[in-house]
Amino acid sequence: MATDDTVSQATEYSLTWSAFKVECRLMADRLKAFAKERGVYGIPTGGCFVAQELSKLLGCHVLDTPKPGCLVVDDLVDSGKTMKPFVEDGYTCDALFYKPHSPAGYAPGARKTSAWVQFPWEHTAQPEDAVVRLLEFVGEDPKRDGLEKTPDRVCRAFAEMTAGYKQNAKDILGTVFETDYDQIIMLKDIQFSSLCEHHMLPFSGLISVGYLPGTGKVVGISKLARLVQMHAKRLQIQERMTADIAKDVMKHLDARGVAVITRAKHNCMGCRGVKDPVASMVTSEMLGVFRDDAKARAEFFA
């Protein structure tokens, strides 16, 4: 059985059938007082496996559809979208795992993990399968010439475009140099490309980063560009990305002030919806001196 630390600290966790049964036993132990005659309903798909195991452990029957007062279970609560209607309708709900960002109270006894959990019934499922389903959804034949290798290409492309999840600011900004320089340091027009988290379509543009050293700490100028790329290679919204870049520089360099400005064009509004490929979005984040001192801001924007 994996410990809490093993599950919470891993980036990926493959659950065996034996480990799955142990997790279900833990769930059953915390639900002993649940009335057997009420039954258990599993949210498809993973919740169905949990419900089957719980029915053996609790001596209750599995329901094809939920009924008032029954127990509703799932394998994992992430955004909470699938469990939300059951919680709102007053069902007793639980799951094996939940994520740090999951809604509070949706699975009160579940094990917390930030890892990608692969359940034993998912051992044949691959990301490429999802791409095949999308091709079928739009009416294409995934096996025709030109599309046979598309699922693999798409997955490799997404892995490259989301590589920032495997990086952290502490490592990038960890090597600093001592200096008595106390004026603005700026890197302008860093090119980036990111993915909008709403439609998973690209947005790209230029980012300028400036900071005012606070305790004599400066960093190699390329590190600012690497920090930008780390944040860009994730599913993002421009506002949050701009703010997070500024916060990381402020935190890791003990800066007196940080200024970040981002200009970008978004394909999610360029090729769909309003269909305006020319409009650009501008966001800025001013911290410390740059927020409080108009002269410092003016120097940054000059």
TrEMBL record:
| Gene Ontology molecular function, alphabetical | GTP binding; GTP cyclohydrolase I activity; zinc ion binding
Q: EC no.?
A: 3.5.4.16
Reactions the enzyme catalyzes: GTP + H2O = 7,8-dihydroneopterin 3'-triphosphate + formate + H(+)
List the pathway annotation: Cofactor biosynthesis; 7,8-dihydroneopterin triphosphate biosynthesis; 7,8-dihydroneopterin triphosphate from GTP: step 1/1
Checking InterPro entries in the record gives: GTP-CH-I_C/QueF (IPR043133), GTP-CH-I_N (IPR043134), GTP_CycHdrlase_I (IPR001474), GTP_CycHdrlase_I_CS (IPR018234), GTP_CycHdrlase_I_dom (IPR020602), PRTase-like (IPR029057), PRTase_dom (IPR000836)
Domain GTP cyclohydrolase I spans what residues? Answer: 128-301
A GO biological-process term: tetrahydrofolate biosynthetic process
UniProt keywords (A-Z) are: Hydrolase
- What EC class does the entry list? hydrolase
- Pfam short name (any one): GTP_cyclohydroI
Matches recorded under SUPFAM superfamilies: PRTase-like (SSF53271), Tetrahydrobiopterin biosynthesis enzymes-like (SSF55620)
Q: Which Gene3D superfamilies match?
A: 1.10.286.10, 3.30.1130.10, 3.40.50.2020
Q: Name one GO cellular component term.
A: cytoplasm
PANTHER family hit by this protein: GTP CYCLOHYDROLASE 1 (PTHR11109:SF7), GTP CYCLOHYDROLASE I (PTHR11109)
Q: What is this protein called?
A: GTP cyclohydrolase I
Q: Which organism is it from?
A: marine sediment metagenome
Q: What is the lineage of its organism?
A: unclassified sequences, metagenomes, ecological metagenomes
